[in-house]
Amino acid sequence: MANNKTNTSILYEQRRYYKYSFFNYIENKIDFWELQKYYGRVDKRGIPFYLNQQYLKSITTPSITNTQQKQMVLNIVSDSFKEMNDEFKKADLYFNIPKSKYNPLKIKKSTLVFETEYTNYFRELLNLWYKQNKNNIDNNISNFNDFMNLFIGTFAYANAIMTQSAYLTSFLSSPLNTGLVIEISNDKHDEDPTKINNFINDENFQFFCNTTGKYGFMVDKNAPWRIVYNLTTQYANDKMNQYGITDIDDLFSKYYVYPHLTEYKKLREEFINFYNSKVKQKPTLQKSEYCHITKGVKFTEITKSTETIQDDLSWIKFYYFLRCKEETIGMTQSQFVIDLNKISMLYNSFGETSALEWILNKTKKFIDGGSNPSYTQYTAVTTNKSQNLTLYNFQF
Q: What CATH number is given to the structural domain containing 63?
């Protein structure tokens, strides 16, 4: 059976065999490799969001076997898992199920806090860029504007993922970021023999699938040790009601953060802090110029400026530039300038939210199985494919 080291053609056939040979009779399943890959990371409209960590709740209790680290999930998921685990314990107590991979349930992984994951990623990205441009930054950049324009000129065109919105809908974002996922094994997801021999063929597998479904969970088809909470079930809705949440839309509006409304501020904070840290490490630089009096080279020591760009509108425009590059939206420089003027008009006339919502609608990723693209999105993508118009520029 396949893993990622298998010959490509053999890998295709064996993955195809796994896909169509197993889980056909399991109703409560989820497939993160295909249409459901964004589950828990976008809402019904395909807009990226992430769980506010204040609504995480521990699932570490004396009755649940787990690792040393504290395990956290969304509060309704925690409550549901604890109830489900009680049923597993009762079945074990009365010898209805033998000991196996599924008995007892041993929690190995739960929530990875999105804000932490993204921040670590973005800082690593900035450090990588700095290493590639260290000499230029340390010895030639004396102010924040030049620093940002160097970044735009040397890195922003690399189509790297830089915003929270893009991160959430990329391969970098783990389902564990959702607060809806619990894993009871650390096995590798590409090892099909492990999935089949140790889990699907486990004598408790059917009991595991039936019982998880009863308590609102789905089993991950590609990782049968991973369960994912199904927010659309009546069981889940009843749990929401216990926390004063009426339905799934109410849950999204109260428990989740929509980064497109705030992430430009996060970008500003990270860039300013990074720049200031480099100024602190090397606060001065030397400029050389020819001296006509001495007929030699004159060196002048310059103290780097710590004055930074603070106005929101400039950062919102820069954010739009990044989002367009991330989604490879094609346009000419003149079209891009028209868009920037549009953002200024919306911001000055109707406020920040209006400008950011316009940017969202212009740059939102197509989500397979989700909402249809807007006409603006459709024309942007078709124009880009036909003309590859991605050479527009931005400067602070």
A: 3.30.1380
Cα–Cα distances in angstroms (integers) from residue 227 to residues 51, 168, 216, in the given order: 18, 20, 10
pLDDT of residue 375: 52
Instruction: Return d(Cα 14, Cα 30) in angstroms, integer.
Output: 20
The DSSP annotation for 200-257 comes to ITSTTHHHHHHHHHHTTEEEETTEEEEEEE-TTSHHHHHHHHHTT--SHHHHHHHHEE
Take residue 159 and report the two structure tokens written for it.
């189509």
Structure token digits, residue 233: 């079930």
Domain that holds residue 252: 23-112+174-260
The model's pTM: 0.86
317 with 183, same domain? no
Question: Quick one: 68 and 99 in the same domain?
Answer: yes
pLDDT in tens, 277-298: 999 999 999 887 767 676 667 6
256 and 266 together in one domain: no
Report d(CA 45, CA 53) in Å as an integer. Answer: 22
Please indicate, yes or no, whether residues 59 and 33 belong to a single structural domain of this protein.
yes
CB-based contact 216:230 (threshold 8 Å): yes
Can you name the residues that pair with 300 across neighbouring β-strands?
Answer: 287
pLDDT tens digits for range 43-69: 999 999 999 999 999 997 555 655 556
* Banded model confidence at residue 24, pLDDT cuts 50, 70, 90: confident
Domain's final residue, options 260, 280, 309: 260
